[in-house]
């Protein structure tokens, strides 16, 4: 299993970013996927998740600003982030698991992360 995130960067408050996660080495359709973030000095927290059927789950405070989606044909997971605030600054990780772990921090497979900085 390989997960490679991209799309992070520095943005001003109120701006938007779209993260991507290219997946390989497994049958993408058979896995539930999630985005988990970790800010400096804080624990990892689930941001958004999408199960095999396409059903989505969001952390309560982020729903309405963040949108998770996937393209099974391209084996790619996305996270559209709008109206970003400095509190969204964190390393964002893509994760995959055979089980529907939703916003759990205990996914089996992880990417290396992409940094998002909001000022």
Structure keywords:
119 residues, mainly beta, 7-stranded mixed sheet, 4-stranded antiparallel sheet, 0% helix, globular
Distance between the termini: 34 Å
Helix percentage? under 10%
Largest sheet: 7 strands, mixed
What is the tally of beta strands?
11
Which of globular, elongated, flat, extended, rod-shaped describes the shape? globular
Query: What portion of the residues fall into strands of 2 or more residues?
Result: over 45%
Judged by helices, strands and strand pairing, the structural class is mainly beta
Mean pLDDT: 96
- Using only C-alpha atoms, the radius of gyration works out to 13 Å
Q: What is the number of helices?
A: 0
Encode the helix/strand succession as letters.
EEEEEEEEEEE
The low-pLDDT segments are none
Short description:
By secondary structure, the protein is mostly beta strands. It is built from no helices and 11 strands.
Descriptive notes:
With 119 residues, this protein is an all-beta fold. 0% of the residues lie in helices and 50% in strands. The chain has strands at 2-6, 9-11, 17-24, 32-38, 45-50, 56-58, 66-71, 76-81, 90-97, 109-110, 114-118. Strands 2, 4, 5, 6, 9, 10 and 11 form a 7-stranded mixed β-sheet that branches. It has a 4-stranded antiparallel β-sheet with strand order 1-3-8-7, with no helix packed on it. A hairpin with a 4-residue loop joins strand 7 (66-71) and strand 8 (76-81).
């Amino acid at each position: 299993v390989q997960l490679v995130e991209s799309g992070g960067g520095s943005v001003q408050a109120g701006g938007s970013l779209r993260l991507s996660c290219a997946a390989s080495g497994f049958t993408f359709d058979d896995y539930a996927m999630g985005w988990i973030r970790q800010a400096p000095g804080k624990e990892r927290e689930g941001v958004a998740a999408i199960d095999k059927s396409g059903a989505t789950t969001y952390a309560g405070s982020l729903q309405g600003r963040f949108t998770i989606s996937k393209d099974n044909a391209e084996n790619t997971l996305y996270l559209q982030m709008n109206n970003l605030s400095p509190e969204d600054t964190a390393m964002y990780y893509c994760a995959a698991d055979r089980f529907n772990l939703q916003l759990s921090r205990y996914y089996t497979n992880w990417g290396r992360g992409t940094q998002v900085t909001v000022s």
